[in-house]
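Consortium newsletter contribution from the modelling node. Members have asked for a concrete example of what our holo predictions look like. Here is one, prepared for the iron/sulfur cluster complex that several groups have been discussing at recent meetings.
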Amino acid sequence: MPTRDSLVSKSERLGASSTKAKTMDEKKKEYFHIIRERYCKGCNICVAFCPKQVLVLKNGKVFPERPQLCIGCRACELRCPDFAIEVHLKGEKPAEGRDSDSVDYTLPPEAMHG
Ligand code: SF4
Ligand code: SF4
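And here is the predicted structure:
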């Protein structure tokens, strides 16, 4: 039979672990999206592949409606046939020349969201 003291210390421990979980949650990675609207043809592929329903089409162009839900999987970026969307970790500087064989990351974006 647990004593009152053992229950209190257990609840304190649970409180401590939920505080720890909250601290970890506060450190959750955040992502932002670069959209090249002139290349986006509104095909909906990225919207359909996004596992977190981050993306929507607005006026025939992709728009990150819920960027806070983004997990950075880059499915949208990898599936886009027109290189119209990029995903980056907030605070990260896009690597110069990354995948330079296939994508020109030096193209100027029209819009950045997130
Ligand atoms: S960003 Fe790419 S995949 Fe998404 S709607 Fe535009 S063209 Fe299609
Ligand atoms: S990186 Fe993944 S979760 Fe984020 S918008 Fe793209 S497909 Fe959705």
